[in-house]
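Researcher: Good morning. I'm working through a list of sequences from a screen, and I'd like to move beyond sequence-only analysis. For each chain I'm collecting a predicted structure so we can compare shapes side by side. This is the next one on the list. No need for commentary yet; just the structure.
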Amino acid sequence: MSIIQSISPIDGKILGEFEASLPEHIEQALQSARSAAKQWEAIEVKQRCRILAQFSRILLAEIDSVCEVISRTTGKVLTEALLGEAYPVLDIAKYYEKHAARILRNQGIATSPFAFPGATAEITRKPYGVVAIISPWNYPFQITVSQILSALFAGNAVVFKPSELSLPVGQLIMDLFAKLELPQGLVQWVVGDGQCGEQLIDASPDLVVFTGSLNTGRAVMQRAAQHPIPVILELGGKDAMIVFEDADLERTRDGALYGAFCNSGQACVSVERLYVLEGCYEKFRQMLCDGIAKLKIGHGTEGDLGAMTSKRQIEIVQKQYDDALAKGAKASGQLEFEGNYLNPVVLWDVTPDMLVMQEETFGPLLPVIPFISEDEVIQFANKGDFGLNASIWSTDIAKAERVAKQLEVGNWSVNDVLKNVGHPGLPFGGVKKSGFGRYHGAEGLRNFTYPVSGLTSRSHLAKEPNWFPYSEERYQQFKGYIDFVYGTGSFFQRIKRNWQALQAFREYSAFDLKQRWQNLQLMLPWKRDF
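Model: Good morning. Structure tokens for this chain:
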């Protein structure tokens, strides 16, 4: 039996001891989840929404203790735990409670009157079954619960594996869902490190959702491919912030400091490259240095930046800082440590060969780079492997949106930062090596289901036009019909040159005229897709 200790990054105190899951325990969890998934899927979406609506009420009633557990486990200040972890969960829960039934409803599809006489077509959404969620340590409550709720609203069961650095939050999540009236085994968790994640994938869930680093994402995808199991991957970022001279510089400065140093920079959507138009570059750089001096390190309800969660991540930040200075960069100050607390640093005179410009930092470093034109900054921002999020700052909204739409990212915002990724109606995810698949929004909810296409024929004809027997005559008739539908010329020209062929299909056309109104009536409930 292996025991994992959870230690607070705030003061080094032991928060709890957790027994690592054995392979047989993971197999049992999957079997139990499959049984629960069948029960849950059988419940109509509106009823699932009514049951899951209780989660928000439970979370609100325990909000202080929830934030305290998150803070002690991750090192976040309490306000960051409240706004960055709890609030987005309440938002996505409310959104799906209101919209899930419409998002997942059957969708009627138009049919060709010749190819499908008397037929109607539809797409239904079915849950995958058991969803395995492997979640990160930086936002262990928000990301995990948002994905669990998405899976549940869609009709799935969930087995989740939190980071071994976030086990008290994993236990908290289990305790909260245990208070809902859910089928036994619908939400379960497993405890362990990367090997446990491999074993969870090898237990053959029906969908794997992973949030984390690029290298681990590659390993997850490779493991899932052996079965094969579909995956949703939300990986790293090296997000750009672009500042034009006509921006409200004071607001923009405050946005940059928040975007770069929220949660001590430990966010996949942190601002990690700040591009400033040359005309205001020096002024804005000085504003950043003045602003960073006012940021406070603290814990509880005091301070802006809390502790770093992972000692390994501290080492990465130190390495990038040392590399930048060794290659000629200047800094707003020393990268000072006190336990797991790091002071934030602005860097300038950075060059493309520096690690801080090439690799994800995931910590409180902010490199600032000048640019001279729209074309140049778009080229700068699109350079690199990642494409997760970006922000553009200008009072010229048309210009800002023009630039935004040329960026190779999955998400962008104008004159705001980070907040866009928490919008419950906007699908979130990346492009390039930032991953694929989405969660949040209608598209995100549908990603936890798969489409089933159905066709129902109400034809009373003896046979369909494409059925046997085939002949030379039949070939010419079909060719004439195809030319009538898709050929060049006016409608009357196409009828004239294909009149003889069309006569062969008059019985289907006559039948279609009788059926069109009936087919239209059948389609009416699904005319408008959400």
